[in-house]
Amino acid sequence: MPGSPAPPRNGGPPPPAADGAGPARSPRGTAAAPVGRILVVEDDAPLCRVLTSALERAGHVVDTAGDGLEGASKLGSGSCEVVLLDIGLPFVDGWKLLQSLDGRRQPSVIVISARGDERDKVRALDLGADDYLTKPFGADEMLARVRAVLRRVRGTAEAARVVRCGEVVVDLGARLVRRGGEEIRLSPTEYVLLTELARHAGTVMDHRTLLSRVWGPMYAGDRNYLRTFIQRLRRKLEDDPAEPTVIVTAGRRGYRFGPAADPGPSPAP
Length: 269
Fold this sequence. Notes:
This protein has about 270 residues and is an alpha/beta fold. About 35% of the residues lie in helices and about 20% in strands.
């Protein structure tokens, strides 16, 4: 699809780097550990080269696909952590590729599209995308989005702690979520959002705090992201998403995991 940036679930072995460029190298000349395994699915060849170059300079291992069929084949290998996915692809469009990933923990998807309409962004998020970049965009912004997604994919080690609300159990140490004893498959972003709420169970977390902690400060005012992912979590965790008891809306302030915390006894007069 035309457009170019401004100038400058756990898988198998990393895919090969694009022809003509390898991974970033350390000062001694040995290959440095890759920052991430990225698949770029983009039919605009010049744009694909620009994205690949920027990603490889940042140390990522990059594979590419020039159309939807090739993209579907490479996605099937399960070897990438993050996909930069164009929507207007030949043979199989990006919407269908996005739908085919429904329910997988990885890869995380950043949609890259010249379609800047809010409805397209919401549709992409509803179908499971973790982020949406509208063309044209800068290489620095793209790299920042990739770094943020990789942080959510990989997570950080946490002390063993289990948070419960009814039949929903969030095991922070094991990075598992269960409902009625069955494991619930969440995307990396869904999981990070849920754990932010679960760590503060019973306490209202405001919109800006959740957006900043899950997506980063640049998203602090974008409530569409938060609203969409809350709806996705409710569909997976609630008996009735229209009457939530696990992820509760607290008026206009934000959201809360479970019932409100007991404030404790009132002080004696």
